[in-house]
Amino acid sequence: MGSSSKEETTSDGGDTASGGASPSNDGRLFTEGERVLAYHGPRVYGAKIQKVELRKKEWKYFVHYLGWNKNWDEWVSADRLLKHTEENLVKQKALDKKQGVEKGAKSGRSAQTKTRSSADTKTEKDDTKNNAAKGKKRKNESGNEKDNVSAEKLLKIQIPATLKKQLVDDWENVTQKDKVVKLPRSPNVDEILSKYLELKTKKDGMITDAVGEILKGIRCYFDKALPMMLLYKKERRQYEEAIVDDNSPSTVYGAEHLLRLFVKFPELFSYVNMEEETWSRMHQTLLDFLKFIQKNQSTFLLSPSAYESDKVVSDGKGKGKEE
After folding, report:
1. Computed over its alpha carbons, how large is the radius of gyration of the chain?
2. What percent of the chain has pLDDT over 70?
3. How confident is the model at residue 105 (pLDDT cuts 50, 70, 90)?
4. Residue 64 and residue 73 in contact, taking contact as beta carbons nearer than 8 Å
5. What's the CA gap between 236 and 227, in Å, rounded?
6. Which of 18, 45, 257, 312 is the most exposed place for a label (fewest CB within 10 A)?
7. Measured between alpha carbons, how far is 259 from 301 in angstroms, rounded to an integer?
């Protein structure tokens, strides 16, 4: 779950809903209550579809990862899902083996390929009850829905026109021209954040703790969100090859993917409760940071011609391997 509004709507067929998926009369590939397999980063996990909605002419599916805390529940597009078939279970097992997942270990949110016990079914039911109860609790605690509306307005991040064009060019290069950003990027996300912090320190004489914490938050959000929602389908192979030895995505990827995060921020922050003053300060910092990227666009961002073919990546590493 990237950058421009077109990101998740693009699907090149590939392994989307493989294993016998056929669209219904209204175009949806999966139904509520259906057990599926779902991509999350480079791996595939057992999941269950809890909700199905048509958003901007595309079907979206709210999934719960079986055996995992409901905090991981999320909306995904069809290209993140696979039918729960023997063929796809074999594929899941192969991906787990490739990632070095040990049997029975939970590191990396590894999914089990064996049929789950009745205890898992009970956990799912309990999660559903807890979701409903906590939903009511949140509403009561907030007390005033106007506060939420105010936060939504504050979180409408205005991305400069030149950066919007960069997002569109980025989408076109990856999804239409089969190109990818050459990795590792220089400057990377860590370096860009550090440059901004240095600039603010020189300009203001001293940096406030609040700004420093916001920048740390951006880095943290980026590292967590990149494998889950900032990559196009055609970039997954490159991610698996680039993020090794516990490298953080923020030390490998650059401003191209960081911009995609800013598009996703309103969605991500909609689940966070903060005072309006905090929202306002964060919003101001994010807008100022975008202006900083815009002023340094020629240094931080690749021109469309500087992208490389994804075939070069595939042939250069893991040649001959199929996923």
Report:
1. 21
2. 69
3. very low
4. yes
5. 8
6. 312
7. 10
318 alpha carbon, distance to own chain's centre: 24
CB 244 within 8 A of CB 98: no
Tell me, what DSSP letter sits at residue 115? Answer: P
Token representation of residue 243 = 């993020």
Helix (H) or strand (E) holding 242: helix 236-242
pLDDT at 250: 96
Query: What is the rounded CA–CA span in Å between residue 126 and residue 267?
Result: 26
Q: Is the pTM of this model over 0.70?
A: no
pLDDT-derived band at 2 (thresholds 50, 70, 90) equals very low
Angle of CA points 61, 63, 69, to nearest 5°: 160
d(CA 41, CA 102): 18
For 46-94, the DSSP string reads EEEEEEEEEETTEEEEEEEETTS-GGG-EEEEGGGEEE--HHHHHHHHH
Phi/psi at 105 (nearest 5 deg)? -85, 150
How many CA atoms does the CB half-sphere of 109 hold within 13 Å? 21
